[in-house]
Amino acid sequence: MQTSQDNGADHTDSAEGAPIATRGVELGVALALMALALVVFGAWRPGLALLGALLYAWFDAYQLRLQHVFPGVPYQIFLMAPYVLSIAVLIPMSRRASGPQALMMPFVKGER
To answer: What pLDDT does residue 69 have?
Structure first.
């Protein structure tokens, strides 16, 4: 007999078998790593980080369109495309990026 709180749903995503709540956590971790990559991509400059965020958003939107253009290709390939393209762009950008001079130095009031 089912109670009012248990309506028979198993609270899992049928496609992957993972609990629905963990999908949000995984997405949050992926986006946090992408934010860190954007800081490195932008070389600690807000304008370049914004450009990187727009490029990532364009890659993410374009992968949805590509899923309909190529229906025979597994959708997971298209889901990972924005991350792969972001890494491909990040590698040459990170070689010339340098962090701020005061990064990881403690702040002492009145010293600067």
So the answer is: 92
pLDDT for residue 8 is more than 50: no
Three-state secondary structure readout of the chain? CCCCCCCCCCCECCCCCCEHHHHHHHHHHHHHHHHHHHHHHCCCCHHHHHHHHHHHHHHHHHHHHHHHHCCCCCHHHHHHHHHHHHHHHHHHHHHHCCCCCCCCCCCCCCCC
- Cα–Cα dist 112/108, whole Å: 8
- Residue 63 tokens, joined: 């992968």
Q: What pLDDT does residue 2 have?
A: 47
79: its two tokens: 């889901």
